[in-house]
């Protein structure tokens, strides 16, 4: 399950293979452009204040996801913060004809970074109110910690990607066992 808020939260890229340096994709203009293009917004380049607000939201979303994955709930101050961010991007409600049917749509009233952050926060709020929050996970690879939604029937998914992080951790466990066995035989 891909979502706007998860894409945004995972903008802090970590070297999942070796624990090398992290890359803050929010600092990359091309990443910001790609992200806002997904929203179909023509947003001006972010200034330092907007980038700081974006980093703060991202860091809080990562903390919230970690707390949810640990079975904790959001606190009142967390909900107040999300409401404040969402208030920075008002919407206009419209009734639209969709063939013979009618549907209600919410159109953004703005197109700046306040609107982008409000939409990210609103996506997170939608997940909190409409999805099973016990399925939010952080990858068990300590070098990754990517946020994902466990949509498996068994609810046992531990890694953001079984073929990447899952396989890497399986190889690490296997090598650690072999090393321990070799050390045990050497000392016997």
UniProtKB/TrEMBL annotation:
Pfam families the UniProt entry points to: ABATE, zf-CGNR
InterPro entries reported for this sequence: ABATE (IPR010852), ABATE_dom_sf (IPR023286), Znf_CGNR (IPR021005)
Listed name of the protein: CGNR zinc finger domain-containing protein
Domain spans labelled Zinc finger CGNR: 135-178
PANTHER family in UniProt: BLL6575 PROTEIN
